[in-house]
Amino acid sequence: MSQPKKRKLEPGVDGEGGEGAQEENGGEQETVLPRSRKTKKERDQQYYECYSDVSVHEEMIADRVRTDAYRLAILRNWSALRGKTVLDVGAGTGILSIFCAQAGARRVYAVEASAIWQQAREVVRLNGLEDRVQVLHGPVETVELPEQVDVIVSEWMGYGLLHESMLSSVLQARTKWLKEGGLLLPASADLFVAPISDQMLELRLGFWSQVKQNYGVDMSCLEGFATRCLMGRSEIVVESLSGEDILARPQRFAQLDLARAGLEQELEAGVGGRFRFSCYGSAPMHGFAIWFQVTFPGGDSEKPLVLSTSPFHPVTHWKQALLYLNEPVHVEQDTDISGEITLLPSQVDHRHLRIQLRYKVGDQEEKTKDFAMEEYLTVSA
Ligand SMILES: C[S@@+](CC[C@H](N)C(=O)[O-])C[C@H]1O[C@@H](n2cnc3c(N)ncnc32)[C@H](O)[C@@H]1O
C-alpha cells in the first residue's frame, strides 16, 4: 500500500502534479494536463541523476533473484560470448559487464549515462579487467562504439516492466549496434495480470473498526475515509503480494519479443490486452496486480532461463504493480471479471508509466480507471 520512499525523484515535476487524477467511472477519462516546461533532455538528465546514488545500485545488486538470474543466464551463454563483443546498455556499477567478461567475452562496452559510470570504471579496474571491459559515459543513443557487437545485455526493466521507458533505449541500441542475428539478453518479456484481494490493505481498512476494543473510542466511521485515501488515488502502487492474495488464475496479457521489428512503435502506442477471469472464491476484491517475467535463451544445452516477478515466486525489488479500484467489490466463487489493460508512456513525462484499465466485475456496469506512476524510482527500506 504505502509506497516505499527512499530513492525518490520528484513527482509530476514543475508542480504540475501527477497525471490522470480521474474518476473511476464513465467514459473517456484521459485528463491532459499542461506539459512541463522541462525539455526531454532535462528530464532525461533528471532521470539519470537518480542512478548516481549508491542506494539504488545496492538494492539491485542485493536482489539475489535478479542478479543471480543475470549471472546464470550470462554464464550459460558462454559459448555465444566467448571471444565475442558485448554492449551492456545501462551498465550501472558494471556488474553485468564483468559477468560477460568472466564468461569469456573478448570486449565489453559498458555504457552508462549517469555519474555511476565512475564507480563502474573502478570496479572494472579492481577486477583487473580494463583490457576487456571499456566503460563509456553517456546515453547509449549518442555514444559511439568502434564496432558492431555480437551480444547486447541490459537490465532495463522498471516497475510494471515499462516504467522508466528504458526498453526503447535498448531497442535503439539493438538497431544501431547489434550484428544481424546477434544475441539479446534477455530476449523477451511477458506481462501478467490477476484480480487481487490484498490482505494487508484489508487489515488497514478494518483497522478503524478495531480502535474501540483497544481504547474505548469508536472510530469505525473512518473506514470510508481510509478507503478513499488508500484506494481512491490513481497511483500505481508498488507492493509485494503473496499467492494467497490472488483471486483467479493469472493471465498473460502481452508478450514482447525484443527482436521484433516495430516494437518501439508498439511501446509508444501502448501495449496490453484483454483479460477474463473466473474467481476462486468469496472475497473482497481490491483491484488488479500486474507483474512480468523476462526470458533468456538457455545457451547450448539448457532450457531458457526465466526471471519472474510473480507473487508465486520469491520476491524481487520490483514486487508487483497494484491497481486499486476506488473501493472493494465483493466477489464469489466463479464471479466473472473481464476487461482490458494498456500500458503506455505518460504524456507528461515519457519515462513515467501510465496504465489504462477497463473492467467489469460480475453484473456490475463496466468501469474505467486511469493510473500513473508518480516517481521515477523508489527503493524499499
Ligand atoms: C536498472 S539499472 C541496471 C544497472 C546494472 N546494469 C545492474 O544490473 O546492476 C539501469 C542503468 O541504466 C542506466 N541507463 C538508463 N538509460 C540509459 C541510456 N539510455 N543510456 C545509458 N545508460 C542508461 C541508468 O543510469 C542505470 O544505471
Automatic annotation (TrEMBL):
PROSITE patterns per UniProt: SAM_MT_PRMT (PS51678)
Entry GO terms, CC: nucleus
SUPFAM superfamilies: S-adenosyl-L-methionine-dependent methyltransferases (SSF53335)
Residues annotated as domain Protein arginine N-methyltransferase: 188-364
Principal location: nucleus
GO molecular function: histone H3R2 methyltransferase activity; protein-arginine omega-N asymmetric methyltransferase activity
Keyword rRNA-binding: no
Region: Disordered, residue numbers: 1-40
InterPro entries (alphabetical): Arg_MeTrfase, Methyltransf_25, PRMT_dom, SAM-dependent_MTases_sf
Keyword Nucleus applies: yes
Compartments, as annotated in UniProt: Nucleus
Keywords: Chromatin regulator, DNA damage, DNA repair, Methylation, Methyltransferase, Nucleus, Repressor, S-adenosyl-L-methionine, Transcription, Transcription regulation, Transferase
UniProt EC number: 2.1.1.319
Signal peptide location: none
GO BP term, example: methylation
Boundaries of every Methyltransferase domain copy: 86-182
Name of the protein in its database record: Protein arginine N-methyltransferase 6
Organism: Erinaceus europaeus (Western European hedgehog)
Taxonomy of the source species: Eukaryota, Metazoa, Chordata, Craniata, Vertebrata
